[in-house]
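> tool_call: predict_assembly(chains=two)
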Amino acid sequence: MQHVSPVREPLVTGGKTYHDVTQDICRQVEAKPNIRWMAALSVALFFLGVFLYSVYRTLWYGIGEWGLNKTVGWAWDITNFVWWVGIGHAGTLISAVLLLFRQKWRSSINRAAEAMTIFAVICAAMFPVLHMGRPWLAYWVFPFQNTFGSLWVNFNSPLLWDVFAISTYFTVSLVFWYTGLVPDFATIRDRAKGPIAKVAYSLLSFGWKGSAKHWSRYETVSLILAGVSTPLVLSVHTIVSMDFATSVVPGWHTTIFPPYFVAGAIFSGFAMVLTLMLITRVVFKLEDYITLEHIALMNKIMMVTGSIVGVAYITEFFIAWYSQVEFEQYAFINRATGPYWWAYWSMMTCNVISPQLVWIRRIRYSIPATFVLSIIVNIGMWFERFVIIVTSLHRDYLPSSWVMFSPSIIDIGIYVGTLGLFFTLFLLFAKFFPVVNMAEVKTILKYTVDNGPTYTGIHGHSEQAHQPATHGVPASAPVNYNKHE
Amino acid sequence: MSKRFALGIFEDEDVLLHAIENVREAGVKIYEVFSPFPVHGIDDALGIERSRLPIAAFFLGMTGLSFALWMQIYMLGFDWPMIIGGKPHIALPAFIPVAFELTVFFTCHGMVITFYTISNLYPRWKTPVLDVRATDDKFVMAIEMNEKTDLNRLTQLLRANGASEVNEKEMSKF
């Protein structure tokens, strides 16, 4: 009854049974929070406090609290926005694109990766909203007929496209994630002992019982959501890149931006997934579910997208020279050798050189090396956005307005603060929600486990068991499946 | 009104699939099968029709697309035309991103709402289930019983088809 491929590594190790999966994943949900989790949460909450203080300063005293000036009107805020949105993309890639490609290994990481997407988009959204200065008027970005006239929003503006893209992306990711959570909440509900847990998970599980009809619809919904999320995730970062590409600023006005940004987004997103997974698997003892094989596969994706990003950097430089546009050429020479050379070369080192180390098998399968690499890549990707944004803006067409940008303490506070917000949300998720999609892992268990659950039950069904299950039920069978409820 | 069920508990999804066939062939009506994860082939075995949700998805997407195009063309083309960057009032290429996003928005949310509604899934304070292990590691085949049902015969049938246990359960609200 086992179907273990001789050439492929098992997706879940340790000979787990269905019940083991439930036990392993529910353990941390049901247990009292441990000291390491509490310690991590307090650090995250401290930075959340930093965030709230910085937001208070921004709102009370205004955008002047930031380091922006007349020439550099966009700096850390948009850098962080793009960085966070990019991080989010890996989650959707894992949950949607890899589902369509039938990459079964995604099953044990998709839940946490999708959670990461949602929290990253929440962090990202903070920046444009705060940059509005008066966030209580944030709804003005939507096409409401405003009461002061009949002026509508400008649908020709990429910034407005962003509003639609990010809000669609956020809400769609949220319902996709939640729909996947419902069966697992039902599992926790049926195991719950305490009265609060019983009610809470009953509410969360939407009365899911796991009936065949519901599963059938559930799979259809997942597939269609994956199908529409795939172009969605590509469109989101394409539109983010158009915020820059549709302007005439040297260094921004390039057609390479959409694919280059999407590759960069997936690159940084996988780095963040790796960072989180490497910690999660140790803290929650999930080494059998998130195996070295998973880490190696994610490293490979990181390497591919990192190489695309590297090629894009070089192409940009080449095109600047080839275009014969003086301003464009200056923008790129200035990036590499101007006052922000250190940012440029940090970006080059972190994003172009470091992912190439993954070619070495030892590094690909090494946990400490992967962890360090994933952090380096995230730093590099932050610098990429900083380089694109600040070095292009600080010296544009008019040398009399050339300036330098330096962040204020509030800029730094908001950025570090969103990290606090992100980790607060992620830690709460990891404690109260199942971090691995139990139902989905159970579907792959039987066919991939090394010496896994073998049912040696009745009269040798084993041979026929794996045939396509259209086992001829005659159409005239005197039975029918009744819809009820 | 309370209902009585015979519950066949199975340990393995392949055994369950065969049992479903055999039980149905024996002329017993299966009320419902509960499983901890989607079992492939169970739709065919139970005779569940293919879901029509994809059709709904298509029309929802079309609704979103038409709405988005109408909104943009009406607002910028007719209600309050403005010259933006010297371009036409109805600058269709610039309307593509929002049209696409709203298509996805309507498809996804419409689908999910439809799914929860037709499946009668909504938050409830209490969720009575026939067997709590159905969300853990057991596959539960529920057969509704009436006065005429012979429980012994049913038990034998289920046992012969690989059920590890057969229980009886009464549910008042289900």
